[in-house]
Amino acid sequence: MHELPATAPHHTTTMERGSFALARCSCGWSGPARRSRDRARTDATDHERAPSGGDVPA
Ligand SMILES: [Zn+2]
Q1: How remote is the CA of residue 18 from the centroid of ligand 1, in Å?
Q2: Å from CA of 44 to ligand 1 middle
Q3: Cα 45 from Cα 19, distance rounded (Å)
Q4: C-alpha 1 – ligand 1 centre gap (Å)
């Protein structure tokens, strides 16, 4: 278990799971499984830019 300060930057990575790719963040967030690694990276970037508003529908 890692303890992160509240001000920790969102450090995202992408990981592959079978034929899917998904984004993960150091805050514990993880994105949906994508068929494309590009998509997963987009999810990661989106989360870094808007960590607390990512789940709000447009
Ligand atoms: Zn995060």
Answers
A1: 23
A2: 9
A3: 21
A4: 16
Q: What is the mean pLDDT of the chain?
A: 84
Q: Is the pLDDT of residue 55 over 80?
A: no
Spacing, Cα 50 to ligand 1 middle (Å): 9
Overall size of the chain counted in residues? 58
The burial of 10, by beta-carbon neighbours within 10 Å (0-12 exposed, 13-18 middle, 19 or more buried), is given as middle
Domain limits of the chain? 12-49
Indicate the pLDDT class of residue 56, thresholds 50, 70 and 90: very low
CA of 14 to the centre of ligand 1 (A): 13
Instruction: Check if the beta carbon of residue 51 is closer than 8 Å to that of residue 27.
Output: yes
Q: Where are the alpha helices (DSSP H) in 4-56?
A: 37-49
